[in-house]
């Protein structure tokens, strides 16, 4: 009896893992043809040990220089992987605005924020490049593994430039083998076209972070 229950449980686990792998593979193939924001159901792909090792929240926040009292925009926040850690770092005197185009992702973010008891995170549903962001309101903008999902990248970077306060920093992270991975040269070219000045680069392969400053 116990053996039968065990076997049924193992079959169920194997089926769930197979479904997750097939869903992930299907999304990767679709992204190569027409990039779209990650569906909420695949947010677990960003919680893997691989992502944590090369692009973990604390590592990216350290690179971007997020500190107490800052106002931070997490652009393409997903389920809140970065936003929650950023909220702890900026503290009650700071604020994190978590922006995503998918309500499913924002719903997961709100649940995470509630469980953590955080009061300095504000969720905003909007797409980058559509002019929804306030101007000059942020000290830091985080753009982690998102740029390739944006259809009009030039417009998005111009909007993020305007959203930063003079002297503020946009921190862009890319991780291979994300199907939307953009090379450092591509990110730099697009950012400079929007008015940013390169300040620092961290990491090389499989992940890198570029800090780009809006001139004071």
Written account of the structure:
The protein has two domains: 1-34; 40-213, Rossmann fold (3-Layer(aba) Sandwich). The protein is 43% helix and 22% strand. The chain has seven helices and seven strands; from the N terminus they run H-H-H-E-H-E-H-E-E-H-E-H-E-E. Helix 6 (153-163) links the parallel strand 4 and strand 5 (164-175). It is globular. The termini are far apart. The mean pLDDT is 87. Keywords: Membrane, Methyltransferase, Transferase, Transmembrane, Transmembrane helix. It is an enzyme of class 2 (transferase).
Topology summary:
Layout: H1 2-33, H2 49-55, H3 57-64, E1 71-75, H4 81-90, E2 95-100, H5 103-116, E3 121-125, E4 138-144, H6 153-163, E5 164-175, H7 184-193, E6 197-202, E7 207-213
Parallel strand pairs: 1-2, 1-4, 2-3, 4-5
Antiparallel strand pairs: 5-7, 6-7
Helix pairs in contact: 3-4
The class by helix and strand makeup works out as alpha/beta
**Name of the level-1 CATH class of the largest domain:** Alpha Beta
Beta-sheet strand percentage?
15-25%
Stated plainly, the CATH topology of the largest domain is called Rossmann fold
Q: Count every helix, treating DSSP H or I runs of 4 or more residues as helices.
A: 7
Biggest pleated-sheet summary = 7 strands, mixed
Shape: globular
CATH architectural category of the largest domain: 3-Layer(aba) Sandwich
GO molecular function: methyltransferase activity
GO biological process, one term: methylation
Domain Methyltransferase: 72-168
Keywords: Membrane, Methyltransferase, Transferase, Transmembrane, Transmembrane helix
